[in-house]
Amino acid sequence: MAFSTFLIYKIILVLCVFTLALVVAMYSTYAERKVAAFLQDRLGPNRAGPFGILQPLADGLKMFMKEEIIPNVSNKWLFILGPSIAMLTACMTGVVIPWGPAYQGASGTFPLQITDVNIGILYLFGVVSIGVYGIMIGGWASNNKFALLGAIRASSQMISYEVAMGLSIIALIMTTGTLSVGEIVAQQSGWHWNIFYQPLGFLIFIICAFAETNRTPFDLPECESELVGGYHTEYSSMKLGFYLFAEYINMFISSAVMACLFFGGYNFPFIHIHAPLLASIVGFLIMMAKTCFFIFFFMWIRWTVPRFRYDQLMNLGWKILIPLSILNIFITGIVMWLQHKI
Amino acid sequence: MQALTNRSKVVVKKEMSLAEKLYLPAILNGLKITFSHFFAKKATISYPEETRAFAPVYRGMHVLKRDENGAERCTACGLCAVACPAEAITMVAAERKKGEEKLYREEKYAAVYEINMLRCIFCGLCEEACPKEAIFLTDRIVPSDYERDGFIYGKDKLVDPIDKPIDVSVRETAEVAAFKKDKEYAHNQTWKDQVNTRKSGH
Fold first, then answer.
1. Whose C-alpha in A277, B76, B78, B109 is 20 to 30 A from the C-alpha of A261?
2. Residue of A nearest to B24 (CA)
């Protein structure tokens, strides 16, 4: 492939993934309200357009039109920097995820993954960890005790759960032998989904994913009943919108990561398509279906399980999930040793 | 003590079993319950399109009725305003001119008739007090508004439209009519009646 083709293709791909993340996040807000309503025997938003399909646009417009308040006592630069970081890191995570099988065109291979870095998982972890700075800086810059408490909760929660999450991934990496997300997905063709080899690892990973995205039952950073609004108490207008939006993008990306790492990504058994373009499209749709299921699962859990108490949260993270994930590593190692894989 | 129902459960503060400690079976059970509601019948009533059935005696927005010839019945006597416990009703009376007989039934009529819907408590005492069968509470709902001024309803909103009169037959029953004509009650008595009752020893 010529360099110019490569460059143009990558730019288009980046724009597509960026748009995809934004649109999915936008409609996640709609889906959240719809799912919440349906689980509670209500109808949900249904006035803006058919079935309320234009509701996210109305919400976005409202966010932009709202008065923008920056408290006098806040640190203005950091106050603006907080949501910017949250949004930036949320948008950066999508680049290592393979959205579909590569398209074998006449002029070369077009992978549906922006970049397949060989440390893809480490990159994901790194970027997600920067995300906590957005919350921390925003909460601190607000100069509000509720915001600060929310920020402290968020950062300690994320640091605690990142450990268990990383350890649960180590067992997965032991079986796959690679850190590249693209390769991990490629290994899972047919029925060789990692969920069947790492069920405990998946369980730990999904629990930690809930904690990392600040979703119920781990939404203590924005715990309305205790902290007004948590770290975004002082935020208004689109800066608040960015925080909320970043949460939904994170949810989308972590759903995609779970689909990639444990549920075979774009692979689906019994589907063998040889037409290259069709294969890419079907693979992409399968990937999106799995991702959407996990987004639904996030919402389903949110409207089922109540919020943890903070000590319960810390107990679960440090005393249960971390020992369990270490145990998982040991079991994986022993099984691999028995099978003479190491 | 005998149990009233078989639904009561004895609470035992025992050690949790492993399944309970794992917490996951409980979560799965909860997920099952919430999901069963996903397809359940929704409780919402999409208001402007569908309405809940009203009680037959529902008291909503007022109407100033016209008689069978289309003339306004209200004679601006002010009894409704006096009866109103919230003091929501005000009116300005005027004298009927020649040629206005088709418009107003009596020689005196209400040139201005206003009800402040924010003050009104929809008790229906105005309707009860009215000797001319002019004001009724209907099953219409007072719509919301952005301004307080919008809630002061004048004759333009209150008077019965000529082309499609508002049905108040639910509230204008035979018993009501009989009650309003009953001379037992002082408000139905003319000056002559009152003199007569006093003479007869009451």
1. A277
2. A203
pLDDT digits (tens, 9 = 90+) for A22-59: 899 889 989 999 999 999 988 888 888 888 899 999 98
* Nearby residues of B77 by Cβ (< 8 Å), 6 or more positions away: B108, B131, B132
Contact between residue A134 and residue A82 where contact means Cβ atoms under 8 Å apart: yes
Q: B168 by DSSP, 3-state: which?
A: coil
Residues 12-41 of A with CB under 8 A from B: 38-41
What residue ranges do the domains of chain A occupy? Answer: 71-338
User: Which residues 111-140 of B are in CB contact (within 8 Å) with A?
Assistant: none
Put simply, the answer to whether A41 touches B41 (Cβ < 8 Å) is yes
Q: In whole angstroms, what is the distance from residue B186 CA to residue B22 CA? A: 78
Query: What average pLDDT score do residues B78-97 get?
Result: 92
Q: Please name each of the domains of chain B with its CATH number.
A: 62-190 (3.30.70.3270)
Chain segment A168-211, per-residue pLDDT in tens: 999 888 888 888 888 888 888 878 888 888 888 899 999 999 98
pTM above 0.80, yes or no: no
Q: For residue A328, what are the CA distances in angstroms to A169, A323, A335, A337?
A: 10, 9, 11, 14
CB atoms within 10 A of CB B136: 24
Per the listing, tokens 């719809």 go with A34
- Residue A234 near residue A71 (C-beta atoms within 8 A): yes
Q: Is the pLDDT of residue B125 over 80?
A: yes
CB-based contact A43 B44, cutoff 8 Å? yes
Residue B48: how many other CB atoms lie within 10 Å: 6
Query: What distance in Å separates the CA atoms of residue A139 and residue A154, rounded to the nearest whole number?
Result: 10
- Whole-complex ipTM: 0.79
CB-CB under 8 Å, A39 with B34: yes
Cα-Cα-Cα-Cα dihedral of A14, A17, A22, A28, to 10°?
A: -170
Give the closest residue to A182 by CA, choosing from A284, A261, A253.
Answer: A261
Q: Measured between CA atoms, how close is A33 to chain B, in angstroms?
A: 13
